[in-house]
Design brief:
179 residues; elongated
């Protein structure tokens, strides 16, 4: 967590900034103009506790619509968990309106895809699954329920008469100061 100290006159105050992590995506798009996240998409991650550095054994998942209450707080988050080793409670929130389309111009380059605000933890691995959609380049045909579990996805665009796909999906996390 970052702390900013602002001073004015005879007083000062602290502002606590929760770490934000950018999930950056890299993929090769073929015959599609953009990869989009559907509103009800489940996000699957492995998460590491910031206190004891233990990584979750199993993947965890949540959606931007999930709301879980935090112990001892009036706040909530998309995902709240207690580390089984140090027992510290941590939380993750998908930053509202942070999901961005991955476009044909981005193909082959890492680009921020979504932002996560994390308290007491860090995402370590993104496990792509379903909940994505693609738009055909030639026809504008929308392909829904795209499943990236295998790291690749392909289909045939009957309107355009050609194959479409997304290949070699890779990801990484970057720490960001901006929300």
């Amino acid at each position: 967590m970052s702390v900013l100290r602002w001073s004015f006159g005879s007083g000062s105050f602290l502002i606590y900034i929760m770490p934000t992590f950018l999930l950056c995506l890299k993929a090769d798009l073929d015959g599609v103009t953009e990869l989009l996240v559907e509103d009800d998409a489940r996000w699957y991650f492995k998460i590491s506790c910031s206190s004891c550095n233990e990584e979750s054994e199993n993947e965890v998942y949540f959606t931007k619509l999930d709301q879980m209450e935090m112990t001892g707080s009036r706040g909530s988050a998309n995902f709240v968990f207690k580390c089984k080793f140090c027992k510290r409670e941590s939380s993750v929130d998908i930053v509202p309106n942070s999901a961005k389309a991955y476009t044909a111009q981005d193909s082959g380059k890492f680009k921020p895809f979504i932002s996560l605000e994390c308290r007491g933890c860090e995402p370590t691995v993104w496990i792509p699954r379903d909940g994505f959609s693609l738009k055909g380049e030639s026809s504008g045909t929308r392909f829904s329920d795209v499943d990236l579990t295998a790291g690749d996805w392909s289909d045939f665009d009957e309107s355009a008469g050609n194959a479409v796909g997304i290949y070699e999906v890779q990801s990484r996390f970057e720490k960001s100061r901006a929300r």
